[in-house]
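Re: [ENG-882] Designed sequences occasionally contain unexpected residues at chain ends

Forwarding the minimal case from QA. Structure tokens:
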């Protein structure tokens, strides 16, 4: 883990921390600690009265978090959808000044062949961010119905060749179970040949299976309202997402809770009721994308979008 090359390149680091408007004595939650890029910057800004709660579902990330020597950090091995429960247990519900959620994967997860996330490295096709939870991707692929595999690849990967890929996975699994990343890459490459300059043909399928295995969209859906509940008035939430499916959920949530609801003019509702029911609970800020410089230095930042909101 000390190998510098393997560590994570934090995306939109300065921008997201600036938007959180860190108070020296504030309470913060980094819901996706990863390799601590954002957490370390938050910790730097806190005095002895400030506190950072760091979450991650990956035991390797948590092991790394425990190497940080600071009495201003509390570490939780958890999914971030548990944010409300943890805040209640810790007696910080409604007291939190800021929450950061940096979705997706860390470089360490991607580069560690044995985790099974990479189509560039051969390893056991596991793909669980928390290997203690759920079933590995290969186990799912070997037993799942073709139509369900096809639906995952279509919906979460937006892959045109989803039907052919699913068919070939199931045919292959009947002959000899799929266990390695290379097994899946070979199936996909027989259907979509690799072309120079274009994305690797396995990109979308790997992304789709990872999203499914880790229930990533459910997690995003479940965390948003709970995170807002945990915030104090004027507390901020900053979320960095990396693909359109996640961003759509975040944008819709922010719009739902950040904009005044329009009631049909013929609805029998008076001005006081209107004020009470239609009051937006979030102030939304303009979305932020990485600079050209950041993308040049870290191409995996290219699809990142940062959305920020403040609790009213
Ligand atoms: C992009 S990395 C975070 C990088 C971090 N901000 C940094 O600068 O080092 C995303 C991290 O979120 C974790 N993660 C993803 N989904 C999660 C979830 N539902 N609950 C908790 N952690 C999650 C992953 O295990 C990974 O370590």
């Amino acid at each position: 883990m000390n190998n510098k090359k393997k560590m994570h390149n934090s995306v939109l680091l300065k921008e997201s921390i600036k938007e959180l408007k860190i108070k020296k004595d504030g309470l913060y939650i980094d819901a996706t600690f990863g390799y601590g890029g954002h957490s370390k910057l938050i910790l730097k800004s806190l005095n002895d009265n400030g506190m950072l709660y760091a979450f991650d579902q990956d035991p390797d990330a948590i092991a790394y978090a425990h190497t940080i020597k600071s009495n201003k950090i509390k570490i939780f091995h958890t999914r971030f959808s548990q944010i409300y429960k943890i805040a209640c247990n810790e007696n910080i519900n409604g007291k939190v000044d800021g929450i950061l959620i940096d979705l997706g994967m860390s470089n360490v997860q991607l580069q560690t062949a044995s985790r099974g996330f990479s189509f560039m490295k051969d390893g056991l096709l596991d793909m669980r961010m928390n290997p203690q939870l759920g079933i590995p991707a290969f186990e799912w692929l070997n037993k799942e119905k073709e139509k369900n595999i096809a639906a995952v690849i279509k919906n979460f990967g937006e892959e045109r060749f989803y039907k052919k890929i699913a068919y070939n996975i199931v045919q292959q699994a009947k002959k000899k179970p799929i266990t390695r990343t290379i097994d899946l890459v070979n199936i996909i490459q027989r259907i979509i040949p690799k072309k120079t300059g274009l994305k690797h043909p396995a990109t979308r399928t790997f992304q789709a299976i990872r999203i499914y295995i880790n229930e990533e969209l459910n997690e995003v859906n479940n965390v948003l309202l709970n995170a807002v509940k945990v915030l104090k008035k004027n507390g901020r939430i900053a979320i960095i997402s990396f693909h359109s499916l996640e961003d759509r959920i975040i944008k819709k949530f922010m719009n739902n809770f950040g904009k005044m609801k329009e009631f049909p003019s013929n609805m029998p509702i008076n001005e006081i009721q209107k004020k009470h029911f239609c009051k937006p609970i979030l102030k939304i800020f303009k979305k932020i994308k990485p600079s050209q410089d950041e993308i040049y230095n870290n191409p995996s930042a290219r699809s990142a979008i940062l959305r920020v909101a403040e609790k009213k």
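QA comment: On inspection the terminal residues look reasonable. DSSP finds 14 helices and seven strands in the chain. Proposing we downgrade this to a documentation issue.
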